[in-house]
Design brief:
Distance between the termini: 130 Å
Helix content: 10-25%
Largest sheet: 38 strands, mixed
Shape: elongated
Radius of gyration: 48 Å
């Protein structure tokens, strides 16, 4: 001890001086934490450093920690105290954290030691590292390669390296116990929370390391390794063979990446797994892995349902290099209850996978669902028998199933299938179908589908049917012929809760079909139709209905329509011919077209019409009223208007009982809708009670501008009292065809009624024109004049003389009705 006390300062001075000559990194330590000891390291002397900090060996301003250790010991022989030439033969690091790594530019941060220059060699007061033992205890290692985004985080419980490291050739022995916190590549977790034990004997010759006796275990999975590698500052090359026989399935499953661990935890298994192979590496971009593996006589049980697959076996091989990759699974077999599945499977080129597989299976779908549940389904039943062979790029299998790049041979029989999505109250039920695929053609024969109240019999082509049943986002493509006794559209529509997003498309972007359809009955909400025939095509969120014929509302309809739902809205263009449609049913089934003025209870009759229509709706079916345009050539027979508010406003002229129920034999009109307004041309309602001619506009906000013409003879007759002869026949009106002109503005609920002078003027012009024609016709017949005037070829009725209607006043004598010489403004009643 006295020797240590005597030489302590000299030893510190020499060691620290020599260490500083070789260091390329900054070291921080309190001098009080440097000590020379022999008691704890006897028979060696040791320079002990406590709470030592070393920064990264990089030429940058901001440097991270490379090493922090609570204790570092440099061991040397006590005899070195006299020679003053210190040979460090052992280093021990305890309770430390080490953070080596590679920068984005490819520079290592851990090259902190620089070899001595030649002129310093041979001096007596020097330090040499003639190491034969390195020990680490309770050290946390975090390695990051920022170039390849690779990270290893592990804890070394104990790890030792022994050998004459200063020799050109020596035997290196390593033994340790580690715990892998995490290994990640490109932010994906490869291994996590794994125990690892190593026992390695290497023969070292310069930068070459040869495995002599080596084994490693990972979660009790033991690998025997032989081969060699080259290391100088970093890994230069590697060529190793490994063999792992008699592995346990549960242990292998424990090595799965974290994102697959939860699924694996639901399974327990027994059986044998084997694996062996070779790995070569010669630079950052040149590597090759050849491996064979397999499973023998295994049993795998899905614990939640206690469903077991027995006799599980597979022979596999993996080839993976910088230029080629292939996974092959041969002789795949498993038995699930009484069902058997056999096949072969391979993937070539992992970056753009080429898939090839052969499957032969006779399976109960409920067994499959119980063994490997499909998360989107709450129920799956039925049986399927499949014999298939598929080859093609995965991208083509997804998007170009019928391309020449895909080989597809399939035969499948499905019976009594029932599939129900989670959150869906209805079940997809397939009673039976036969599916074949050959030469890029997938054909479905006699697919009998039931869902809710609906039934469908389909013959056609349906690639991806089972993908669609298991995944609602998968594409459903259908072409062919469809027959149905009843289709209720709600059975096939997605249901949304009130709180959910209502921006989802009405026509899903994964639905594509083109069908010649025959449907006995169709319904949606209140609408019902029978005996539908026509062609329906849906693609890219667009729908086309061509030559659709149907019977509805006691009449017939022919429809051509186009709907586009691709721009987050629904644009509709429609042409239709209607024949003998029950108007009351029409208004009822179409929710009175969203208006409240004319309801199904206000109108009766049978309509025929030629209809052109266009408009837009949101995905929540909220209309864009500015977009709605339509022209309607309308004929109504056997019509009735019941309690129609605009007509009831005429009660000042006509008895209310006559206005409450107006019958007419026929009505013709050409109606136009645009700019949120309905434009009504001159339209005549003729009946035994009251004859009316009207025209005008009616806005979607219920603002009205109606021009109404009433025959004066009827008007006076309806207002006179019983047996009151005060209003006799009007002079100069032998045909009783004089008219009163009324203007109705305001709203339906609060109409404003005025004299309509504009209507009166228009009628006067018409009468004058008709009188001219009558005069020409008379002169032509009596005197032979105007023979070349073709407009005077038909007799016209005698023109009515213009007049205005004044309110009768029983206290004043009657006077002649004459046009007033006032300004053109209309007067209120």
């Amino acid at each position: 001890m006295s020797l240590l006390f005597i030489y302590q300062d000299d030893v510190k001075k020499v060691l620290l001086g020599e260490i500083n000559k070789h260091l390329k990194a900054e070291v921080k330590i309190d001098p009080k934490n440097i000590d020379l000891t022999i008691l704890k390291t006897f028979p060696d002397c040791s320079m002990e450093f406590k709470n030592i900090l070393m920064l990264e060996a990089l030429q940058v301003k901001k440097r991270d920690t490379l090493l922090f250790a609570k204790q570092v010991n440099l061991h040397f022989n006590i005899s070195d105290l006299w020679s003053k030439k210190y040979n460090i033969k052992k280093i021990k690091l305890k309770d430390g954290i080490v953070k080596p790594g590679i920068t984005k530019g490819g520079t290592p941060n851990y090259i902190f030691w620089e070899q001595a220059k030649d002129e310093n060699k041979g001096k007596s007061d020097s330090i040499n590292f003639n190491l034969n033992l390195i020990e680490l205890e309770d050290c946390h290692i975090i390695y990051r390669d920022r170039q390849t985004t690779f990270k290893t985080d592990l804890v070394i419980k104990t790890l030792s390296f022994s050998g004459n490291f200063s020799d050109e050739e020596y035997d290196l022995k390593s033994k340790g116990n580690l715990y892998l916190n995490q290994i990640t590549s490109h932010k994906k977790i490869i291994l996590k929370n794994k125990n690892c034990n190593i026992n390695v004997d290497l023969k070292v010759k310069g930068n070459q390391y040869l495995f002599e006796k080596t084994y490693a275990s990972l979660n009790n999975m033991r690998f025997n390794v032989n081969g060699s590698f080259a290391y100088k500052d970093s890994l230069q090359a590697i060529d190793i063979n490994y063999d792992a026989a008699d592995l346990d399935i549960a242990t292998v499953l424990s090595l799965l990446p974290e994102d697959q661990q939860q699924k694996a935890n639901d399974y327990k298994s027994s059986g044998e797994i084997y694996s062996n192979g070779n790995f070569k590496y010669s630079g950052k971009s040149t590597f090759n892995l050849e491996s064979k593996f397999g499973i023998k006589n295994a049993e795998i049980t899905y614990k939640p349902t206690a469903t077991t697959a027995k006799n599980v076996s597979v022979d596999g091989s993996l080839s993976y290099s910088n230029s080629f990759s292939k996974l092959n699974l041969a002789n795949v077999f498993l038995k699930l209850n009484n069902d058997e599945l056999k096949g072969n499977f391979s993937i070539t080129n992992f970056s753009d996978p080429f898939i090839s597989f052969i499957i032969d299976a006779n399976a109960n779908l409920e067994n499959l669902q119980n063994f490997w549940p499909i998360d989107t389904l709450s129920k799956l039943k039925g049986s399927v028998k499949i014999n298939s062979e598929v080859e093609g790029l995965l991208s083509d299998l997804k998007n170009k199933t019928f391309s020449t790049n895909v080989k597809l041979n399939l035969g499948a029989t499905v019976s009594n299938l029932e599939a129900q999505f989670k959150g869906d109250e209805n079940i997809f039920a397939i009673e039976s179908c036969f599916i074949t695929a050959k030469d890029r053609e997938v054909e479905v024969k006699d697919l009998k589908l039931k869902r809710g109240s609906s039934d469908v019999l389909l013959n056609g082509k349906i690639p991806g049917l089972f993908n669609y049943l298991s995944d609602k986002t998968a594409p459903l493509i259908i072409t062919g012929n469809l027959f149905s006794n009843y289709i209720k559209l709600e059975d096939f529509m997605l249901k949304y809760k009130a709180s959910e997003d209502k921006t989802s498309p009405l026509i899903p972007n994964n639905i594509q079909f083109k069908l010649e359809a025959v449907v006995s009955k169709f319904s949606y909400a209140k609408f019902e139709a029978h005996n539908l025939t026509g062609e329906i095509e849906i693609k890219n969120q667009k729908a086309i209905i061509s030559d659709m014929k149907l019977q509805t509302m006691q009449g017939e309809a022919e429809i051509d329509a186009f709907a586009d739902n691709s721009n987050n809205k629904l644009d509709v263009v429609l042409q239709s011919k209607l024949k003998n449609i029950n108007i009351s049913n029409l208004f009822f089934q179409l929710n009175n077209f969203g208006q409240t003025t004319l309801q199904d209870s206000n109108i009766k009759g049978f309509a025929s019409a030629d209809l052109d229509f266009s408009g837009s709706w949101s995905n929540a079916l909220e209309p864009n009223l500015n977009s709605i345009q339509s022209t309607i050539n309308l004929t109504i027979d056997r019509g009735e208007l019941l309690d129609f508010k605009p007509l009831l406003s005429l009660s000042k002229f006509v008895d209310i009982q006559d206005l409450q129920k107006i019958k007419f034999s026929s009505l013709q009109s050409n109606i136009e809708i645009k700019d949120k307004t309905i434009f009504l041309p001159s339209t005549s309602i003729k009946n035994s009670a009251l004859n009316i001619i009207f025209w005008g506009t009616h806005s979607f906000d219920n603002d009205i501008n109606y021009h109404i013409e009433l025959l004066i003879s009827e008007l006076l007759a309806k207002k006179r009292k019983n047996k009151d002869e005060e209003f006799g026949p009007v002079e100069n009106d032998p045909d009783n065809k004089r008219s009163a002109f009324i203007l109705m503005t305001g709203t339906v609920d609060k109409p404003v009624i005025k004299y309509d002078k504009k209507g009166l003027k228009e009628n006067i012009k018409k009468d004058i024109k008709e009188e001219k024609q009558n005069l020409k016709q008379l002169l032509k017949e009596e005197f032979g004049l105007f023979k070349k005037d073709t407009t005077a070829s038909k007799p016209k009725e005698k023109a009515n003389q213009a007049f205005e209607l004044e309110k009768p006043n029983n206290n004043k004598p009657k006077k002649t009705l004459e046009p007033k010489k006032k300004k053109d403004d209309d007067d209120d009643f």
